[in-house]
Amino acid sequence: MNAIYALAAFIAAIVIWNAVFKRNIGEAMAVGFLVTAAFAGSDALAVGWKSLVDGLKSEITFAALAFVFVSELLSRTGLVGRMVDILSSLLGRYRGGSAYAATVASGLFGAVAHNGQRSWRPSAPSRSPG
């Protein structure tokens, strides 16, 4: 039952820190980590440190960081905008072409960078049938 209380405290700490105090989610997660570590009692520092070290060694942590870095790289180099432009030029003349271009670009970007921060922008005028 202690684990359920720790999970509830973790979620509450994140929500309060982020939504009520209007701080960023990274800080909220760190506060949630500290609140959860406190449930270890007198071993909180040791348990918290071991959890942090083991978490940083995790393959999932590396993959998440790699996705974020690739996402930033693709965004800053302008590759996303060029990809949307190319797809819009290929699909824009068809009915619903802009939507298809945005969907394909979002899928390609998500497959590589796992972040859809700029997957659509209106580049071709929409055409109504008729």
From TrEMBL:
Membrane-traversing stretches: 28-48, 60-79, 99-116
Domain (TRAP C4-dicarboxylate transport system permease DctM subunit): residue spans on this chain: 7-113
Recorded superkingdom: Bacteria
Keywords, in A-Z order: Membrane, Transmembrane, Transmembrane helix
Residues in coiled coil: none
Xref: Pfam families: DctM
Protein name: Tripartite ATP-independent transporter, DctM component
Organism: Kibdelosporangium aridum
